[in-house]
Amino acid sequence: MPSRDVGLCCSILRAALPGVIEDMQIAMPGTTTKPIQTERTTAEQQALYASGRSVPGPWKTDADGVLLLSNHQRQVKHGEDAVHATDLGVFSRNVYLTKDLYYKPLAEIASARGLVSGWSFPTENIDPDHLQCMGRERHSPAVIVAAGTTEGEVQP
User: Fold this and answer.
1) How far is CA 77 from the centre of its chain?
2) Looking at the whole model, is its pTM more than 0.90?
């Protein structure tokens, strides 16, 4: 089951999230917005990566979870060991609303709160329910430390 623990998120995201949720509820009266996924395991990320590649279905991500990490995977960025993204869900009467139009307000709300929305991704990669910290790259190359080296030594 996906993690919804906002406590795993970086401090910037944790601080901004309550305001984002409040703004979404103002923009979309009669709905409730809440985090539906914060941290992803490597296996969860690899399953998303397989979609549209080795598994039938739509393309979902270019982060494989091993060589290229998603901001949903715990990692050190800007000195903070945390998850740097969350996916939000919009609900009406406990029904999860999946159409992109329900997430459209997130683009402006995220920007106003110093965050990045998945609406700002390239057209073919738009991720309407995605929210991440500003200045965090979309994905990060994994740092692989080979046996016999010290942390900080990156092997080619």
Assistant:
1) 14
2) no
